[in-house]
From TrEMBL:
Organism name: Paenacidovorax monticola
Family: Belongs to the YciI family.
InterPro entries (alphabetical): Dimeric_a/b-barrel, YCII
Domain YCII-related per the UniProt entry, residue ranges: 1-111
Protein name, entry field: YciI family protein
Length: 145
């Protein structure tokens, strides 16, 4: 199963406080373990919400809202995408993770939808389109500069 592992933002991360060299090194070692175990699919840190925008939808209308966003506990400071056998395995990996923030922090784990989860609504044509798009994205993937 694939899961998204989200590091929740804190007041410090929203203020733009960067991780220490020690934390970056510890996270690098943890990411190395994830890669060696075949778990890590992707992972990135996010800039504070002050650099972000939200687009709100109301029927056909779109409204753009500039950051920062005030609900810090609901914001995401970074994420991983993992391939694991079970939610329990994901929890065990998170327990091994260095604390991503100084002081208290929280990491949320959520399973990704797989094609089978959509049932009959995902027609063979839609499934074929999804597979084609995934293959195209994979073919275009380039290492980050």
């Amino acid at each position: 199963m694939r899961v998204m592992v989200m590091v929740k933002a804190t007041r410090q991360s929203e203020a733009g406080q960067m991780p220490s060299t020690e934390l970056l090194a510890a996270m690098g070692r943890f990411n190395e373990e994830l890669v060696q175990a075949g778990v890590l699919l992707a992972g990135e840190g996010l800039h504070p919400s002050a650099r972000g925008k939200r687009v709100r939808f109301s029927g056909p209308q779109r409204a753009v809202v500039d950051g920062p966003f005030t609900e810090t506990k609901e914001l995401v400071a970074g994420f991983w995408l993992w391939q694991v056998a079970s939610m329990e395995e994901a929890v065990e990996w998170v327990k091994r993770c260095p604390n991503p923030m100084e002081g208290e922090s929280e990491i949320e784990i959520r399973p990704l939808f797989e094609a089978a989860d959509f049932g009959a609504e995902l027609t063979p044509e839609l499934q074929a389109q999804e597979e084609r798009l995934r293959a195209e994205v994979e073919a275009r993937a380039r290492p980050a500069p």
